[in-house]
Every structure is written in structure tokens, then in C-alpha cells.
Input
Amino acid sequence: MEEDPEALNLAADWADISQGLRKDLGQQAHSQWIKPIQPGPLCKETGTLDLYVPTEFTANWVSDRFSDRLSLAWKIARPDVRHVRILVQPGRRHPELRLGNGGNPRRAANDGAHGNDPLSSVLDGDAFATLGQGGVGIDASLTFASFVTGTSNILARNAAQRMSEREAPQFSPLYLKAATGQGKTHLLHAIGHAYLASHPNARIFYCSAERFMVEFVQALRQNQMIEFKSRLRGFDLLLVDDIQFIIGKSAAQEELLYTIDALLAEGKRLVFAADRSPQALDGVEPRLLSRLSMGLVADIQSADIELRRSILENRLQRFASVDVPADVIEFLARTINRNVRELVGGLNKLIAYAQLTGQAVSLQLAEEQLTDILSANRRRITIDEIQRTVCQFYRIDRTEMSSKRRARAVVRPRQVAMYLAKVLTPRSYPEIGRKFGGRDHSTVIHAVRLIEELRTRDADMDGDVRSLLRQLES
Output
């Protein structure tokens, strides 16, 4: 049967893109996450390209960590691709479980290349991961060595290190509390790596609370609860991420409670991570709350600017061949301040774009290509703050923002302030006009368009605006 020419073109484009990503990400990450991707159909009407992966776990992981890079690479390779979707391969079935060797589940032999691998003791790649040699299910890049420490995360980092050492820790369980993207998942993976290094024969269990509940319900429906419980309680280290998602599931909570008690009674180690403290977990049974908070609750605060700089500089070591100017690092560290994941993602996206297009990394390129990330991180800036900053910059009196004077030394700063008000605030043209002495909205529109035009042909004006933007966003 004759092959679809479009499918062949997509496959050829993917071969080139995949090769470029291998150079950027390294052989190990590429083999584990990128190589299994297969291009699917491209919808001509919406410009949406489907990329298929083998499991739901892989789909979630690739979406979280590589979606921006994949989307950018495809857009550059093919202008007709406007969006990419990471999906599980249609018709892909979950492998059946075979129980043996004391209740340890093994993958069915027909589960791809891993069917005969004794280390693939999992309930499928998108569910629970039992770790042995090689650390199946754990991201090889998320180690203690790659975790950058600062004042905001030093307690959590040291506690995690202690949990992974050969000597028994003074506390268990360890509960890592942090907002999204601040490093709690990184520490979970790092604990798994380090624990295997000090306990080579250990059995480690890593999953999210959501997957725990999914598999619990599945075992319940399939009359496999005895095997489920036996397997859970045979681990030496239990790592459960996003424990907040177990809220309200009374049966799953009860099973987790009994598992915690059983493991603690045998001196096993437990680590939980969540985006809130145990006491803030509404809908969780008091007994489970007591177990979660009985060890050490380590809070990871938002990274301060010094830590954000250090994280970027550490990340740059992976891109030794790429020149990233100091002012770009400072700009990213000051501007992307919501969480570390966005910060690193912004740097990765910027470098990937520069490499794929052959452009040099610059402040202008960062502002152009990271619009969405930068906009999401910008704090709420008021028109009063803009007026005050512009007046200080141009050394004019604050009253000139509302005065009727039309001297060039006053008009141009006023126009710049109107432009910045439109760029940095959600205010409408009439609202901005009222803040500038009751001026008509058409005056504001004229000012915004004029400054936009001047920035394209007047380097001094563009430099002034960039400087003011940095001041206001820092």
C-alpha cells in the first residue's frame, strides 16, 4: 500500500527535529523522553499536530517539560504547524499484570521492549514506579548535585539529603511543602537517586497521589487488593508527590494510613510532597493528617533573586557553547519570579529558539520570545508608579504628567508614560487619559503609536523604554 506523502514529510521533519533535541538535551534524556515520540496527523484547518507517546506518564512528563521546545521546533520546521498536542498512542493498552516472586508485579511480556526486563516492576509506565538499578521512573537529571540551594530551600534540601543517607534519619515521614515549581518534585527524585546509591538493593516506590488513587480503585474493582497492599508494604522508601490530590477519597486515605503505619513500624522511610501544609489539607481524615505531620514538615519558600541568578548560572553550564549575556540573566532573574520551573523553562526556550534560528541571545530576543512567561510574572504596576518612575528618569516634576504644557522636554516623557501605562497595565485608553489630566483617549492612542514607531527607528528612545521597563518590572 502506498504511504501517505504527508506522513513521510512529517517523519522526515521529525528526524531532523529529534536530532537537534538530542544535541540540546543529551543522549540520556533524549532516549528516555524524545526518541519514543511519533508524529501523528496534522490538522490543516487548525494547524494542530498530534505527537504520540507510549504511555500517559510519558505524555504528562513530556508536556510539562518539553512542550514549549517541541512546539517551537515544529513551528520553525513547518510554518503550517501552529500547535502541538502530546497524546498517548491510539489503541495502546495497559499491560496485564502477572504476580509472582512473593507478589511482586511484573510487566506482561508483550509490553514492548521492556517485557523481559526484571527491573521493569511497575503497574505501567504512567503509574507506580518501582526503582531498582538504573532508577526506573526517576528523572536522571533531578539529583542533589543539580539542585541549587539558597536560603529559601536549605532546610528542605538538607532534610531530603538526610532521608537518603545510610544512617536512619531522626524523622519520618518527611513532608515537603512548596508552591508549584519551587523544587519539591526535584527533591523527591534526588532522594530516590541518593537512596539507591547508599542502599543498592533497596526497593523504592514513587508515584503521585492521583495515580495512587487510580491504581487503588483499579485494584478494588479487579479484586486485587491483597496484592496491592502486599506490594505497597514491601518497599523500603515510599515517595508520594502532590498528596493534596488525595483529598476527599476516604477509602484511599484509609489504605494510605495503614500503609504509613506498616512502613513506619518496620523502620521504613516515607517522603510526601504537597503544595500546602498538612493542616491545610481540607477533607483529609485527622488520623492521616497526624501521620503526615508527625515527622518533619520542611517548607520551601519562593526563590529570592540571588537564588534565581544561581539557578540560571547553574543551568547555563549545560549550554557551554551558547553565549548568554549577563544582562539577559539579570533580566530573567528579576522578571520571572513566580517559580523556578518557569524560570528554567524560559531560559531553555530562549536558548532553543536562538539555536534553531541561528540568532544570538540578547535582551531584545528575550523580550520578544518570552512574552507569555514575562506577562504572567509581571507584578501589578500602577499608572501612578509609572508616572513617578518616568518623571525621575527624565528629571521632570510629577505635575507635568497632568499639565497642559507642550514643551518637547515635557511632552515626550508624558507620551512615554502613556505608552508604558498601556503596555504594563490593563487600563483602557480612556482610563489612562483620565490619569493624565483628563486627556481624550485619542491623545493616548496617538502617544502609544508614536512611541512604538520611535522605538523601531530611534535607538535612544528604544534604550530609554527598555531601561524604564526594567526598572518598573524589577
Q: What stands out?
A: The chain has four domains: 5-88, 97-300, 305-377, 383-473. The chain has a mean pLDDT of 81. The radius of gyration is 27 Å.
